[in-house]
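pls read this stuff:
=====
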Amino acid sequence: MQIGTHALQSDFDAESDTLYLYSKKVPVASSVELGNLLIDFAKDGTVVGIECLNATQTLAHMVIVSHPTIWKDKTRLDEAMLAQVKKAHVSVHTEADLFVIAIELYTQDQQVLKGNLGVPIPTGSEKELLKVLKTV
C-alpha cells in the first residue's frame, strides 16, 4: 500500500558525515530513530525528513548504484559525491509486515542513487500505521 511521497531538499555535512533530507513546506509531526537514521513524519504518515549519520557508511548498505565513482571503497560512499546530492525523492509504502522507505538521491549532474530501507513495524493497514506513528 502506497502511503505517501515527497520531494526533499538535501544538505551534506562532510565534517560530521551527515546527510540531511528535509522538506521546508511540511511540518514534522513525529520522529523515529533507527540506528544511524532519524526519520521525520508528517501527520499523514509521509516521510518529510531523514537525517543520516555516518552517511558514507550507512547509505553504502542501502543504495543500489551502477556508477563506480560513487564508491570510495567497498564499504563507503565517496563524500564528494554525497556533497553533490541536491534533492531527493522519498516514497513510503507497506509490504507484508514492513514499512518500506524508498529513497532516490539526485546529484548535480543528474546521477540517481536509489536505495530502500525496510523498517519492521507492524502495518496491517494505513490506519494502523498512522496509529503507530502517533505513539512515537
